[in-house]
Amino acid sequence: MVKRTLGWSLLAVPLVLAMAGPMIAGPVESVGAPWQVPGAAHPLGTDVLGRDALTVVLAGGFPVIGMTAAALVLAYLIGVPLGLVAAGRGRLADETVMRSLDLVLAFPSLLVLMVLAATGHRGPGVLIPVVAVLQLPAITRVVRAAALAPGCRTAVEALTLQGQPWWRIQFGYVARHLAGPVATDAGTRLGVVLYLLASANFLGLGLPADSPDWAVVIERNSEALYTSPAVVLVPAALLMALCVGTNLVTDRLLAARRVIA
């Protein structure tokens, strides 16, 4: 009971702030000197641009959460079918898919982001698909491994003997048994995607430097961690709550699903 309540609470706080915060934040503009300490006028102090830190935090959740969700959804929309094809279409398809993705795996993620930044390719329209592609090798391997598990293979062989086509077996039967592995992987991959997006913003590849996005705010105000810590620690705590809450909720839902099954 405590774990369930804690998980939903941790997840709800950043999500509610991301959705409702921009509507109550007001204009995000300079109101004083940079890095003022918290006071009556500015409960969290001010950031590097002299903006009220509380206003920035309220306005900055939707961009990072929206980009993270978009990148994850795109990655799984591509990675899950690829994993099912690799597992169900024979050795040639398996080798083609997995060796092709090994090429993506050979390039370090940060190196890819640095090259994009150096060539001037930037913005959410570039960053989201790039981050999604960088996650494909790991996602495809998870799906392929789950689809090749002994329990699935026994049922697949029986359905094959009945004359069922491969696509109906893989996308009809096997896909229904991937919810657990995919949900577990997504919960942990959320942190990886957040890290990549924060790194991209640090390189100037993602959102503008004056964006109130939580990841941008953390990077831009890192020098004030000891003199004005609230402007760094509050958005960092919200991102951490998002990651931890997602994993706790995922674990709880999977445990309830196993009990029902």
Automatic annotation (TrEMBL):
Bilayer-spanning residue ranges: 54-79, 100-120, 126-143, 190-209, 229-249
Pfam families: BPD_transp_1
Domain ABC transmembrane type-1: 61-250
Subcellular location: Cell membrane
Topological category with respect to the lipid bilayer: Multi-pass membrane protein
Domain of life where this protein originates: Bacteria
GO CC terms: plasma membrane
Keywords attached to this entry: Cell membrane, Membrane, Signal, Transmembrane, Transmembrane helix, Transport
Signal peptide range: 1-25
CDD domains given in the database record: TM_PBP2 (cd06261)
Biological process, per Gene Ontology: transmembrane transport
Family named by the database record: Belongs to the binding-protein-dependent transport system permease family.
Record's protein name: ABC transporter permease
Organism whose genome encodes this protein: Amycolatopsis lurida NRRL 2430
